[in-house]
Structure formats: structure tokens, C-alpha cells
């Protein structure tokens, strides 16, 4: 899950053609298919689709992060046409496929959904919770809240509708605290394995084991006066300090201060006796 896959097709001296031209934004979903489909229709949750050219080699590289998939083994294809460019058609036929470099990618099934909120689809293929914001139940509601309770090392995330904006745009780095103020959230909740895609409006992260302060925050999908709020509450432990570990050996928790005072006296006496024995 979330592995980066890349295809290299062509270079400075070899002008190979990639099919579909926007591979990973669109893909073929069959070995004999010549009509491309949007990646969001074939493999919902795919993120970080990037097309680049290596400045040193001139290689054309397309890449993406493989999303979670819990429906069935998904297979997607792209083709690299290494034939003479003069004879290359603008599209390919079934007969052409046998003469092309075939990239076949199999995405296995992941049995569980990611703990999070999908504001794009009620029956989410990706997240544990889905919200149909077009439902009559939400017609007069400006603020729709989806709550996520998460444990350490658990993957969390959310997805916004295409016509909404993510706020803050770098959620999981910055977020809103429970007072509604934006803050640098990583200072007290060091979320890791961040995957943020503002183009596809999908965000993922992994819950740490420890945090500081209140382990709650929220981010939003915003359009005009409508706010789709995903509220995360994380079950985190406070990192133990060296001093708390050290004093924990001598002090016992009690409703009174007796055990603490007694331990302090014993420590003082120990040092006094040790001094006079030297």
C-alpha cells in the first residue's frame, strides 16, 4: 500500500510514445482494451500522479502512489510504443498491442478500509466512513462533521469532493485545534508517512505512538459557506521523560504527599551517611 510505481518510456535520443499519453491519470483496465479510463474510476484513492523528464538521461517518467484496494485484484495497463515515430498513429488498436512494451500492474486486495472519512462517496472503497453530502439530510446543513477515533500506528485519512478546497491545504502538517485556531500540528502530534494530494483532494497519514497536549484536531473541505469537517481524535501516550522515569523509582502515586516526602527524607539521609563514611 502506497508504494510508488514508475514507468520509464523514451529518452533524449529515443522518442517513444506512451499510451495513454497521460498514463496514470488515465489507464487501460484490460489487456486488449484500447479505450482509456480515469484512474479514479479504476483505482479510487490513487495519488501523487507525476510526469517528469530526467534532466540527465532525458527519460520520460510517470509515477504514482498505489492506493488501498479492498474490492478485488485490480489490473491496470499502460503501453510504451517503441516503433518508428513516423508510423505511430494517434491511437492504438488491439492489433497494435502485441508490438508495444506492455506495463501490467496488479494491485492486490487489502482486506480493511483506512480509518477515515470520504465526503465524496457514501459507500467508500477507501475509508471506513462515507458521507453523501447531496443527501436531503444535509441540504440545510452548512457544517457536516465526520469523527475519526484512531490508535497508534493506524493509517488515517480523508477525501474531499472535487469542487471543494482542503483547509488547511497542508493538513496533517498544519491543522485546526479544538479552539478553531490553525497551528503547526506536527509540533505536538508528529504524524508521519504523510501523503497529501491537493489535486485529487486525498490525504493520508500514520498515527504516531506518542504526542503532546490534546491529541485532537480537525481539517476541512470548504466550498462557499459549506464546511465538511473531519475531526481526528488520537489515542496517544505522553512521551516519558528521563526525569519522570528516574523519580518514578522513588515516588509512589498517592492521594497524600506522604510517600513522596518519605522518599525525599530517605534520599537526603542516604547522602548524609555516605558523606560521613568517606
UniProtKB/TrEMBL annotation:
> In this protein, which residues make up the domain named 6-Cys?
1-110, 113-241
Which keywords label this protein? Cell membrane, Disulfide bond, Glycoprotein, Membrane, Repeat, Signal, Transmembrane, Transmembrane helix
Write down the superkingdom of origin. Answer: Eukaryota
Query: What sections of the protein cross the membrane?
Result: 258-277
Per the record, the major location class is: membrane
Carries keyword Transmembrane?
Answer: yes
Listed GO cellular component terms? cell surface; plasma membrane
What InterPro entries does its record include?
6_CYS_dom, 6_CYS_dom_sf, Parasite_Repro/Invasion_Surf
Instruction: State where the protein is found.
Output: Cell membrane; Cell surface
Protein name (Swiss-Prot/TrEMBL): 6-cysteine protein
Species in which this protein is naturally found: Plasmodium vinckei petteri
Amino acid at each position: 500500500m502506497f508504494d510508488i510505481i514508475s514507468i520509464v518510456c523514451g529518452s533524449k535520443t529515443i522518442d517513444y510514445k506512451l499510451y495513454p499519453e497521460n498514463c496514470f491519470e488515465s489507464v487501460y483496465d484490460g489487456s486488449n482494451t484500447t479505450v482509456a479510463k480515469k484512474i479514479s474510476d479504476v483505482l479510487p484513492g490513487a495519488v501523487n500522479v507525476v510526469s517528469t523528464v530526467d534532466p540527465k538521461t532525458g527519460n520520460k517518467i510517470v509515477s504514482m502512489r498505489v492506493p488501498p484496494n479492498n474490492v478485488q485484484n485490480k489490473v491496470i495497463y499502460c503501453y510504451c510504443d517503441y516503433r518508428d515515430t513516423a508510423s505511430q498513429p494517434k491511437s492504438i488498436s488491439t492489433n497494435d498491442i502485441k508490438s508495444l512494451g506492455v506495463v501490467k500492474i496488479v494491485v492486490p486486495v487489502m482486506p480493511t478500509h483506512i480509518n477515515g472519512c470520504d465526503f465524496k462517496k457514501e459507500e467508500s472503497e477507501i475509508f471506513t466512513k462515507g458521507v453523501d453530502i447531496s443527501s436531503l439530510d444535509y441540504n440545510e446543513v452548512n457544517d457536516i462533521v465526520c469523527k475519526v477515533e484512531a490508535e497508534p500506528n493506524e493509517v488515517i485519512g480523508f477525501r474531499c469532493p472535487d469542487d471543494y478546497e482542503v483547509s488547511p491545504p497542508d493538513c496533517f502538517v498544519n491543522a485546526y485545534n479544538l479552539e478553531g485556531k490553525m497551528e503547526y500540528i506536527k509540533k505536538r502530534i508528529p504524524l508521519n508517512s504523510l501523503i497529501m494530494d491537493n489535486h485529487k483532494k486525498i490525504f493520508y497519514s500514520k498515527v504516531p505512538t506518542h504526542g503532546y497536549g490534546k491529541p485532537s484536531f480537525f481539517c476541512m473541505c470548504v466550498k462557499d459557506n459549506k464546511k465538511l469537517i473531519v475531526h481526528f481524535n488520537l489515542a496517544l501516550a505522553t512521551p516519558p521523560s528521563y526525569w519522570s522515569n528516574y523519580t518514578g523509582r522513588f515516588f509512589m502515586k498517592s492521594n497524600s504527599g506522604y510517600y513522596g516526602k518519605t522518599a525525599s527524607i530517605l534520599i537526603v539521609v542516604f547522602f548524609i551517611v555516605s558523606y560521613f563514611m568517606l
